[in-house]
Design goal:
single chain, 121 residues, alpha+beta, three-stranded antiparallel sheet, 2 helices, 6 strands, 31% helix
Amino acid sequence: MQKSKFGVSTIILILIFLGIFGGAYFYYNQNYGGDQYYTKITNNGKKMERDSGSVYYHYNLPSYNKDGQKNNIKFNSYDLDRPLKKNAYLKIKYNQHRKEVLSWEKVDANKVPTAAKDKLD
């Protein structure tokens, strides 16, 4: 009898372990995971000022995923005291659940997927 209790206990512990880590993985992906989009800077953005007096620029640009599907994405360039360089391409990590840009980075034009680049040019 003890042998079967050990087996059942082990299975229950494994299921609890999988449930906890599965839930944590789902939560992380839901809140901190994102889809990749690409955009091209076509304007200087809207100059904004924080209460502290620091300046940032707000952008609202069409962005496309690797398949060419469009999403208008809003984001800010907080750590820059000047607008982003015009005609620069950005890769954006966008979280659909939070409707928020998690990160963005400048990329070379040849790194932009063809379907997205065709729509941006």
